[in-house]
Design a protein that fits this description.
Blueprint: H1 5-14, E1 17-22, E2 25-29, E3 34-36, E4 41-42, E5 46-50, E6 56-63, E7 69-72, E8 75-76, H2 79-96, E9 101-108, H3 118-133, H4 140-150, E10 162-165, E11 176-178, E12 186-192, H5 202-212, H6 216-235, H7 239-258, H8 269-283, E13 288-292, E14 298-303, H9 307-317, E15 322-327, E16 333-335
Parallel strand pairs: 7-9
Antiparallel strand pairs: 1-6, 1-16, 2-5, 3-4, 5-10, 6-9, 7-8, 10-11, 12-14, 12-15, 13-14
The chain binds (3R)-3-hydroxy-3-methyl-5-(phosphonooxy)pentanoic acid.
Length: 352
Amino acid sequence: MTLTPQQLATTASEDGRATALANPNIALVKYWGKRDEALILPWTGSLSLTLDAAPTTTTVRLTDAADDVVLLGGRALEGTARSRVTRFIDLVRALADRDERVTVDSHNEIPTGAGLASSASGFAALALAASTAFGLDLDRRALSRLARRGSGSASRSIFDGIAVWHAGYDDESSFAEAVPARGLDLGMVLTVLDARAKSVSSRDGMRRTVDTSPYYPAWVERTPVELEEMLAAIARADFTAVGTIAERNAMRMHATMLGAEPPVRYWGPASVELLDLVANLRGDGLECYATMDAGPNVKILCRADAVDELATRILEAQPDIGVIPARAGRGARLITSEPGGSAGEQTTEGAR
Ligand code: PMV
């Protein structure tokens, strides 16, 4: 049975329960640094590719219980990990003007907190599932603004393929939207060098960089220029320019962090080996570009039809690492399946 989006939203909100799926996104022009920590307003705009791999599936159910329950991978979260979710649910309760408690049941297909964008897929899925369970019918922009309050990068996982997050100047004006990318079929291979959670959260790493790095003002000045260059490269479907700008932007983000006191360094020797491998593969004619986030795992951008060859070549050179091949994927959507289960995904969009 296939429900229409309206039927699906009604069904989900009538029984106070909704399940959403969202994919991670990897930034090609990075977000690094908050102007407003409470509202999660960034200093600069950013742009990313939503992938078709490694999703988060989240069910939110309204309950009569005295308190919220937050499960990740079947285990109850406690402390700051739990309160990050319950504070987000408080925002949804305020939007809906309701006060029921919830059970949140979330499953990640990728390691959590290892710079593999699990917070982007996690808060995008939570925004859609929670808002639907509370009977809200948010459009994509409102959903993006809501997801942003959980994790800035989550604002972009609401959308298919390439999305730009406009920095904005207040809660209303800071949202992501889709960027048309006709003629540009992007792929990416994520490497898993270290699946452990990072020791410095992106929140703390950003704060330290903004507060102490003398290079941060240059980042704030340059990033809007690079974002414009990236949008122009996408508009003319110029893969070489997209890759070149993305790799350079990632290196510049890490350069601002290295200037912090004490330095914020997410990469290790294995990451550097991968950066060398990418340069060698490119020299051999396999056009690919490296990018890295708040963790040691290198992500490698290529043309969609080169993903399999790239994954093979990486594993030939580094047989002991994990690889996740991916292409451009869909934004957050409602599904009928249970987290971790295999039952039917809706083919219709569950959010406008
Ligand atoms: O949204 P957060 O707090 O997980 O920050 C993400 C920061 C980077 O992944 C390093 C860059 C980005 O734009 O996604």
